[in-house]
């Protein structure tokens, strides 16, 4: 194969034409008599900063293709995974240009390249994810431009591109009006939430209907504190990441940005998003709840079909009311029933309301037992009852949260005791 690389002729992956690393690599390939030091140094720098391994040239170009925005992955997102025959041919054209980077080793392409570039071992190895496993499934066996193109099209359809393909959950950056991936996202799973089976089933069925493009409701998880409402929602993002589900957390002071968030998510039609509002509640003098009402239903522009809103709250009625509010309303407002309707209308817009109650004594102890067994610690039923009850009385009552806190305390004290015991 002729050693030649001309990124300037790329049609759809245009971001690569100005990529500084690819430029230095292209020059090194085209001029074997000149020094390739700049290209080698650039590749090492990228490998360490991005934790790239293996054939470093291939790893780098893959990193760019799955991260950079191009007309192919954007079209797939807007169309829900469809691509025209002509655009596919243009993508194959680009893969033909880039083919040497996938099928040849750095030492074969760049004169003087050290052998370690053929199988680079970065200082920090990148964790294997579902997305990287997908890439690994087709890259080694792709020897033609058509095979490469189809492999990347499958990847884009399943995971998207850029941060959407990497992160399960996002926060909204109000200043820049962009989504920011959450790197250290809680690895919660529904099976590790003890009890609440009926609640988990209701939430799961609604989410699966949403992922299957069937009618689904916005959901309000309401009830006692520390019962796992937030954990259930976070677990969904982990359970259904491969099916295209992503979580977007919006804080209370960002609620006014909901229309902008909706517009951003509308651009990723092949993915499904749950907008997550945690611990939602309002005082009567706060008007932000009207943005939530409008976002759920009632605005001029409808909510995108790929977006649902899931909220948690300790209150069934999200807008706080007092008896004084009712007395003042009767005294000063002609149609006092209108004020009552206004305060309950937000909760009513959630089609699915799931109630979480404090666990029973047996459920509370089962949560403790499960947490301890995961760490290899097994208490007798009597020990479990005595220790768990004592912790409950000294703390804020029975809940999943206090059960987990006891487990953390018990495990920590157990380790401390074993460390402090003198050797016999």
Describe this structure in words.
The chain is an alpha/beta fold. It folds into three domains: 7-165, no CATH class; 179-356, 3-Layer(aba) Sandwich (Rossmann fold); 361-420. 50% of the residues lie in helices and 9% in strands. The chain contains 18 helices and seven strands. It has helices at 20-30, 37-50, 56-67, 71-79, 85-103, 106-109, 130-138, 145-159, 163-166, 197-211, 229-239, 258-266, 289-296, 323-332, 336-348, 361-373, 381-394, 400-420; strands at 169-173, 178-181, 219-223, 245-249, 272-277, 307-313, 352-356. Strands 2-1-4-5-6-3-7 form a seven-stranded mixed β-sheet. β5, α13 (289-296) and β6 form a beta-alpha-beta unit. α1 (20-30) packs antiparallel against α2 and α16 crosses α18. The longest helix is centred in the last third of the chain and has 21 residues, at 400-420. The model is unreliable at 334-343 (pLDDT under 50).
């Amino acid at each position: 194969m002729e050693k030649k690389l001309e990124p300037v002729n790329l049609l759809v992956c245009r971001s690569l034409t100005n990529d500084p690393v690819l430029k230095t690599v292209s020059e090194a390939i085209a001029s074997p008599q000149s020094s390739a030091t700049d290209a080698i140094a650039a590749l090492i720098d990228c490998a360490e900063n991005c934790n790239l391994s293996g054939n470093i040239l291939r790893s780098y170009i893959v990193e760019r293709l799955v991260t950079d925005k191009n007309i192919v992955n954007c079209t797939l997102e807007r169309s829900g995974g469809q691509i025209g025959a002509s655009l596919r041919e243009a993508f194959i054209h680009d893969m033909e240009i880039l083919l040497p980077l996938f099928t040849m080793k750095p030492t074969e392409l760049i004169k003087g390249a050290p052998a370690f570039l053929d199988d680079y071992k970065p200082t920090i190895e990148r964790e294997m994810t579902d997305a990287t496993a997908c890439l690994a499934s087709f890259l080694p066996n792709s020897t033609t431009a058509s095979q490469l193109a189809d492999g990347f099209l499958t990847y884009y359809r399943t995971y998207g591109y850029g941060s959407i393909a990497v992160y399960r959950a996002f926060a909204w950056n109000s200043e820049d009006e962009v989504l920011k991936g959450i790197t250290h996202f809680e690895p919660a799973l529904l099976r590790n939430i003890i009890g609440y089976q009926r609640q988990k089933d209701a939430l799961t069925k609604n989410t699966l209907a949403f992922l299957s493009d069937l009618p689904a409701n916005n959901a309000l998880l309401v009830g006692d504190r520390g019962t796992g409402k937030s954990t259930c929602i976070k677990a969904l993002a982990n359970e259904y990441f491969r099916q295209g589900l992503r979580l977007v957390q919006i804080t209370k002071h960002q609620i006014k940005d909901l229309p902008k968030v909706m517009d951003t998510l509308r651009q990723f039609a092949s993915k499904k998003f749950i907008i997550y509002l945690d611990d939602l509640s309002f005082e009567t003098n706060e008007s932000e709840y009207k943005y939530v009402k409008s976002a759920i239903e009632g605005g001029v522009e409808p909510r995108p079909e790929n977006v649902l809103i899931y909220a948690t709250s300790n209150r069934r009625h999200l807008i706080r009311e007092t008896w004084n509010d009712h007395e003042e309303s009767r005294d000063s407002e002609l149609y006092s029933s209108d004020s009552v309707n206004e305060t309950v209308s937000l909760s009513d817009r959630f089609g699915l309301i799931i109630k979480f109650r404090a666990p029973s004594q047996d459920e509370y102890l089962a949560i403790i037992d499960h947490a301890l067994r995961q760490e290899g610690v097994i208490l007798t039923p009597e020990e479990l009852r005595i220790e768990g009850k004592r912790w409950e009385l000294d703390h804020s009552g029975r809940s999943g949260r206090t059960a987990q806190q006891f487990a953390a305390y018990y495990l920590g004290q157990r380790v401390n005791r074993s460390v402090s015991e003198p050797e016999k």
